[in-house]
Amino acid sequence: MTKDTVFKGTAVVPGVSYAEAVWIRPRPQLPQAGAVVAESEREAEFERFLKAADTVADRLTERSNAAVGAASEVLAATAGMVRDRGWRKAVKKGITGGHPADYAIVTATTKFITQFEAVGGVMAERVTDLRDIRDRVIAELRGEEEPGLPQVTGEVVLFADDLSPADTAALDTTRFTALVTELGGPTSHTAIIARQLNVPCIVAAGEKIKSIQPGEMVMVDGALGTITLNADPEVAKTAVSESKLMAARVAQWRGPGKTKDGHPVQLLANVQDGNAARAANASEAEGIGLFRTEICFLSATTEPSVEEQAAVYRKVLEAFPESKVVVRSLDAGSDKPVAFANMADEMNPALGVRGLRVARANEPLLTRQLDAIALAVKESNRSEDAPIWVMAPMVATAREAQWFAGLCEERGLIAGAMIEVPAAALMADKIMPHLSFVSIGTNDLTQYTMAADRMSPQLAYLTDPWQPAVLRLIAHTCKEGERFDTAVGVCGEAAADPLLACVLTGLGVKSLSAASAAIAGVGAQLAAVDLETCKQAAEAALNSEGATEARAAVREIIQPK
Predict the structure, then answer these.
(1) Could you tell me if 130 and 95 are in contact, meaning their C-beta atoms sit under 8 angstroms apart?
(2) Which sign does the torsion angle of CA 457, 459, 460, 465 carry?
(3) Distance CA 221, CA 240 (A)
(4) Cα dihedral sign for 438, 444, 445, 448?
(5) Which of 38, 171, 264, 359 is the most buried (most CB within 10 A)?
(6) Strand partners, 19
(7) Which active-site residues does the annotation give?
(8) Using one digit for the tens of pLDDT, what is the confidence trace for 450-459?
């Protein structure tokens, strides 16, 4: 390679690292259909599989218990997949049919991979998890070394086609100073855990990175999404030093969120249960900007009662007894199938019956949830001055907003809506009169605006919230929010990007809600600029030709050399 060869991926976690490249340990070679197992030996072959699967599941559970936050949750979920009765039943069927255990694992897993990919969205992204448990159990069966992280002695940059949750959660960030993957997306498990670990991370870098050899020196810039091979050592070391100074500034930052000249920007946390809410309360989060209620019930086969739901919600509300909490009503469908919502199979679930649309066909499902939220408020120890806001996902029309608001008002709840359908942004002037607030879900808004599956690594360049088309919809929403005195927040992954947070503030966004681990980075960046600079950055981004140009233009304004 020539000097300063630059590769480009999707920026996920900011920060700069300069170290030798290492690659993830190879996965086991998958078996082909081979000799038939004698019928008399099939029961023993299944027992051999069960022993290997239980060993892998126990190992993952131990790692989950040793981890915290998102890493612990993801590892526990992965262990649950190894113990999944449906998967094990499919493996047993293969072994009963005469396949060796390792080949039965491959055929069973392939079946589930096909199903997950057909659903799309987050379910498609869990294909990485399925392949991971397949490979770990096969390696255990064969007595081979567990695939995954290599043994290293110094600082390195880890490269992989894609990282499993188990590998990402097990990272020693004093050794693995940056992550780069060929596949993945900004909302993948790798990205989620990398944010919690605060390790520079780039995903969807493409096949071209395979030309980078182990031992070669690389500079990774997690904010720019660049991997530079054979960079000038002095330039690289200077960039690392500057990055460390910024990290120290982030570590010292304390809320509340505001710009250098005192303009307030409320910084809130995204959570999915009481544990996450308590962890957020230990951060600089000023409240909860997104409580994903459906995550609590993804494994439920029957609808929890009003009282059961209220008990779950109360744990979240009580974590912030003096602060605002924004609860999202059930966002079922598409990539988050909820068994008790009784949704039919669809050709294109991302554009089908999801979010509030589920409730349009089953209003009692929504009203029982709103009853549960109201009951949780009544039974919690919250201050009377601490607001509880409830918002509906996938609102597309003024009539839907009016209907949802009416149901909330009947129960004394403050009503709002997610702006994630472009129609809702364009029709904000008709929707806002019915609501007290809106929150922009940039993940879906970007997906629908750019007509690109947000989980597709091939389309990661399109599903970038820096796309000027997306920012123009946000700007329009903020303008209408000012006109109707309706609070406008952002709760998508864009809110976790410190540089983009300045743009959103310049556009008129009043609150930003992100993973609690990202809040300090956003707060420190906002504290370094004044509101006028944020407005200049917003204007530059809006007038750019694309996401890459927008990011570069804003960096010149916010962080000039």
Answers:
(1) no
(2) negative
(3) 9
(4) negative
(5) 359
(6) 218
(7) 189, 491
(8) 999 876 767 8
Tokens, residue 347: 């050709």
Q: Which residue has the tokens 């609860």?
A: 327
* Three-class secondary structure of residue 270 per DSSP: strand
Three-state DSSP state, 56: helix
The answer to whether the peptide bond before residue 256 is cis (omega within 30 degrees of 0) is: yes
Quote the CA–CA distance of 442 and 460 in Å, as a whole number: 14
Q: Tokens in use for 547? A: 């996401």
Give the separation between CA 462 and CA 559, rounded to whole angstroms. 24
Contacts of 385 (CB under 8 A, 6+ apart): 322
Q: Is residue 471 pLDDT above 50, yes or no?
A: yes
Q: Is the pLDDT of residue 172 over 90?
A: no
Question: Which residue is it, tokens 């969205």?
Answer: 121
d(CA 218, CA 6) in angstroms, rounded, equals 10
Backbone angles phi, psi at 322, to 5 degrees: -110, 5
Residue 406, pLDDT above cutoff 50? yes
Looking at the DSSP bridge assignments, the partners of residue 490 are 440, 512
Helical ranges in 97-206 per DSSP H: 101-119, 121-125, 127-142, 165-169, 189-197
- Tell me, what amino acid is at 4? D
Do 24 and 159 touch, CB atoms closer than 8 A? yes
d(CA 492, CA 374): 25
Residue type, 132: D
Q: What residues does 218 pair with on adjacent strands?
A: 19, 229
More confident residue, 509 or 337: 509
CA 522-267-421 angle, 5° bins:
95
Give the integer Cα–Cα distance in Å for 154 and 175: 6
Q: If pLDDT is split at 50, 70 and 90, which confidence band does 1 have?
A: very low
Q: How many CA atoms lie within 13 A of 38 on its CB side?
A: 2
Compute the distance between CA of residue 11 and CA of residue 502 in angstroms, rounded to an integer.
Answer: 17
Which amino acid type is present at position 479? K
Q: Which residues contact 512 (CB under 8 A, 6 or more apart)?
A: 257, 265, 266, 267, 268, 289, 489, 490, 495, 501, 504, 505, 522
Q: In whole angstroms, give the CA distance from residue 170 to residue 431.
A: 45
Buried b (16+ CB within 10 A) or exposed e, 268-278: bbbbbbbbbbe
Average pLDDT estimate for 326-349: 72
